[in-house]
Amino acid sequence: MPIEFHCNHCNHLIRAGSEHAGKRGKCPHCKNSVYIPTPSEEIEIIPLAPIDPDEERRRKQGQEETRRITQTIRSERGEVPEVRRETVGEASGDVRLPVDVETLVLEYCLAMAGGKLDEAADFATEIRANRKRADEVISRLMMEELPPMKLSKIPRAVLMQFLKQLREGK
Q1: How many angstroms separate the Cα of 13 from the Cα of each of 43, 50, 60, 147?
Q2: DSSP assignment, residue 30?
Q3: What is the pLDDT of residues 10-37, one digit of tens each?
Q4: Count of CB atoms within 10 A of residue 143's CB?
Q5: Which of 80-94, 95-109, 124-138, 154-168 has the lowest mean pLDDT?
Q6: Which end of the chain is more exposed for a tag (fewer CB within 10 A), N or C?
Q7: Over the stretch 81-90, which tens digit does the pLDDT of each residue have?
Q8: How deeply is 37 buried, as exposed, middle or buried, from its count of CB atoms within 10 A (0-12, 13-18, 19+)?
Q9: What DSSP element (H or E) covers 75?
Q10: Contact (CB, 8 A) for 17 and 2
Q11: How far apart are CA 18 and CA 64, in angstroms?
């Protein structure tokens, strides 16, 4: 069964035999060296370690302190105050900026690809707070033949796995 992926250099669709998975080859279009990914059905999902509740609480406190300090600095500079909205599922009165969910999903994928799992977990938490919009964005990205340029260096099978994990809430 052939493996389909996009060249990291010219973004053309390439098909290679499954016997070439995990190896390097040359793009038939631009002749640059490309990595031939392993098919997504052959990728083993490695479960993440359990979350430490104390560490999670400290992380959230740090984020809240950063938000308060940033808001104070902005207000001292005379900048426009943040648009506030209540956060779903958290204490009443807790506020966050409205978010661009598509940007969060793209940043999540980049963080995962770069091995920045803590950063990716933060993006995933923010994405889950905007579940309906996130599902639309993730579905659209999974259906597109070409990924956004920002994600073009991530092998398609790996990108699909990141989006699938994000959609399933893992």
Answers
A1: 21, 38, 42, 11
A2: T
A3: 999 999 988 888 899 999 999 999 999 8
A4: 7
A5: 80-94
A6: N
A7: 444 333 444 4
A8: buried
A9: helix 53-76
A10: yes
A11: 48
